[in-house]
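Subject: RPP40 protein

B.,
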Amino acid sequence: GAEGSTLMSYFAKNQIQALKPKITFSTLRDLQCPVLQSNDLQGKPEESCSTEELFEWLGAVLNQVSLDNKSSSFLSTYCCPEPNTVVEKAFLCTITGFIIPETIIQLLEQLCCYFGEPKLAYWLTLTVHGFADSPVSWRESEHGFHKGGENLYNFVIFRNLDYWLQMAVGAHDDCPP
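Prediction pasted inline below.
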């Protein structure tokens, strides 16, 4: 109708274009990583770490928090959970923008190809954040910003293609089914 054509002319006149997602790569050297077993969600002392420990560690890595537990640090005395192993090189890729579900599926498929030869990785992760101030969250409910605006999920994919799916939402949000 007339409203649609008015909107189209407004966008054309103001040259509003879809922003391309921004992609950044970084290499993390000598990174302490938790030891994980795909069939052990709770972890076992001296054998593997739990899903909660992994989630906390991942948050520290993605926010570039030091993992060396120095008492002189004003930011964090966090250290990698036990048991852990030092990985010589870990690759971190961050894509920022509006990403559609089909693209996330493609990313997952591409990541699984990383388990082909040479088989260097035991596991990898893909974290998808919603905007903290997004109007909706899971299902069709309004997203309660309140304190942190948590709104994310994380895939942990193992070499044998088992996977964990972790989800985090604010206390006032609906959880997915």
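The longest helix spans residues 2-14.

T.
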